[in-house]
């Protein structure tokens, strides 16, 4: 036979006829040219069986060979090849989204839906509450009338909203009998929702509508960014958005108003549904999808763009955060001289980072930074790649507070504060500014409504003396990732 097996062209296998003819030629060379080899002879039948067995063995060997190649590997073999490159198949995942719960003033703002509560959908699946959520945590729509407010018998009602602008918990006290009550409440809400959501906040002479259809103020459609919102006395009708996750993994679309019921009702409950379609979830990634995504990432990583450089660096072992300061002008700028770019890299090995920068940066573009690594080029030359390693600074917190009932914060309440601050901290990037109001808003949101009557937040670097505590904002350097010393928060009861 011709050359088969491992060749310069890859793994080549013979055809069935090639194998059979080889056996028949050997027979005739051994027993004579007139040896009978037709299908009705013993030799003919025997060696056709043997040839078929050989052919299946060749096919098996080809299959083994293919499992070791990017184009031929399938299933777990493709997983193994890509995993060695730090690339993994996307598993099946459940759908998720926000179901709304419509309630009236008989429902306490602090009522919490636990993770044991589930919603029914018209795709015959159930969606469980993913995180215990109080009714005031994410309000998507709200309807309050002057009559509602007046009926409370209160001469002063305080409204609270967690600002979508700066994260602070803001309040405004209004008199329902005032002729400007409706206007003042509308303006207060507008000032604290996102710019886009202001279009969904309107009023007429007697009512305030938040998250309603602009054409008729009848049908609630929900804010794009729901807000924590409540009043000092229960009033009005509200639509609270509750995060939910499918009980089963896989692709299962859920359209608008496809939530049809809830597993358990409560005082003040009116209805349920969903303003927005859910993320549909996904089935486990197929071989074709997996291979295509891998190739797309290679193409992106090899392109000389800001996004490509960041992507390639984030795929480097140990690198978690990247920020690029590019200066394509002829004038020096704060973080990069003329015609250079500075890359701030948090984590990773310096040599590996430099190599990735060399591999992905545009040709003839100069790098800038505090670290210089010499790279050997493809033609045996040398090029110096510069970048700046990112660093972290840990900040201590001191909370000075007063409570409504004169009691100090419990262990559970302090744990809730730590969890809320940890969630905020997870979003910090290089150079992230953290305002004092942000921290206050997060702390207020972690506690029951009205628990604290006052709160002052002081911050300092954890390496500084206590006399350095300040109520100012955290403004780190451009190459610093801020974090909190969550294990050593100081709590003081006082003014």
Q: How large is the radius of gyration?
A: 33 Å
User: Regions with pLDDT < 50 over 5+ consecutive residues?
Assistant: none
Strand count, sense and barrel status of the largest sheet are: 9 strands, antiparallel
Overall mean pLDDT score?
A: 87
Helix/strand-derived class? Answer: alpha+beta
Tally of extended strands?
Answer: 25
Helicity, in percent? 25-40%
Tell me the β content. 25-35%
Shape: extended
> CA-to-CA gap between the ends?
95 Å
Characterization of this structure:
By secondary structure, this protein is α+β, with helices and mostly antiparallel strands. Helix content is 26%, strand content 29%. It contains ten helices and 25 strands. It has helices at 16-31, 42-66, 75-83, 146-151, 181-190, 287-301, 306-314, 350-360, 411-425, 436-446; strands spanning 5-7, 10-12, 94-103, 112-113, 118-121, 126-129, 133-134, 139-145, 157-162, 169-174, 201-203, 207-210, 229-231, 237-249, 259-262, 269-273, 321-327, 340-346, 366-368, 371-376, 382-389, 391-403, 452-461, 480-484, 490-493. The strands form six sheets. Strands 3, 5, 6, 8, 11, 12, 14, 15 and 16 form a nine-stranded antiparallel β-sheet that branches. Helix 7 runs antiparallel to helix 8 (350-360). It is extended and about 120 Å long. The termini are far apart. The mean pLDDT is 87.
């Amino acid at each position: 036979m011709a050359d088969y097996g491992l060749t310069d062209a890859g793994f080549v296998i013979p055809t069935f006829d090639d194998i059979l003819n080889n056996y028949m030629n050997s027979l005739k060379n051994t027993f004579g040219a007139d040896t009978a080899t037709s299908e009705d002879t013993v030799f003919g039948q025997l060696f056709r069986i043997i040839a078929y067995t050989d052919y299946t063995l060749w096919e098996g060997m080809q299959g083994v060979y293919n499992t070791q190649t990017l184009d031929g590997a399938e299933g777990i073999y493709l997983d193994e090849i890509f995993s060695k490159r730090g690339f993994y198949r996307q598993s099946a995942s459940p759908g998720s989204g926000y179901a709304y719960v419509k309630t009236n003033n008989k429902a306490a703002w602090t009522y919490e839906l636990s993770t044991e509560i589930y919603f029914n959908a018209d795709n015959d699946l159930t969606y469980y509450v993913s995180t215990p959520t109080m009714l005031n945590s994410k309000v998507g729509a709200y309807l309050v009338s002057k009559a509602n407010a007046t009926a409370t018998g209160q001469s002063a009602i305080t409204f609270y909203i967690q600002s979508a602008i700066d994260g602070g918990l803001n309040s405004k006290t209004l008199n329902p009998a005032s002729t400007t009550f409706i206007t003042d409440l509308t303006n207060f809400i507008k000032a604290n929702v996102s710019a886009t959501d202001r279009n969904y906040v309107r009023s007429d002479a007697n009512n305030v509508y938040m998250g309603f259809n602009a054409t008729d103020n009848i049908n609630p459609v929900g804010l794009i960014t729901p807000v924590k919102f409540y009043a000092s006395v229960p009033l009005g009708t509200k639509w609270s958005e509750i995060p939910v996750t499918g009980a089963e993994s896989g692709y299962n679309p859920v359209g608008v108003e496809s939530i049809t019921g809830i597993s358990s009702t409560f005082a003040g409950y009116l209805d349920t549904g969903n303003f927005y379609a859910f993320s549909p979830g996904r089935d486990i990634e197929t071989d074709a999808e997996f291979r295509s995504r891998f190739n797309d990432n290679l193409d992106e990583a090899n392109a000389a763009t800001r996004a490509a450089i960041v992507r390639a660096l984030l795929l480097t072992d140990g690198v978690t955060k990247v920020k690029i300061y590019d200066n394509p002008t002829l004038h020096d700028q704060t973080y990069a001289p003329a015609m250079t770019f500075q890359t701030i890299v948090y984590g990773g090995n310096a040599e590996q980072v430099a190599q990735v920068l060399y591999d992905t940066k545009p040709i003839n573009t100069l790098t800038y930074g505090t670290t210089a690594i010499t790279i050997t080029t493809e033609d045996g030359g040398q090029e110096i790649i510069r970048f700046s390693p990112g660093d972290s600074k840990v900040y201590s917190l001191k909370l000075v507070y007063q409570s409504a009932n004169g009691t100090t914060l419990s262990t559970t309440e302090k744990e809730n504060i730590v969890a809320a601050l940890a969630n905020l901290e997870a979003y910090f990037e290089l150079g992230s500014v953290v305002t004092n109001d942000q921290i206050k808003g997060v702390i207020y949101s972690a506690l029951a409504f009205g628990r604290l009557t006052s709160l002052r937040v002081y911050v300092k670097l954890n390496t500084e003396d206590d006399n350095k505590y300040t109520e100012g904002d955290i403004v780190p350097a451009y190459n610093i990732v801020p974090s909190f010393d969550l294990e050593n928060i100081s709590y003081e009861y006082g003014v």
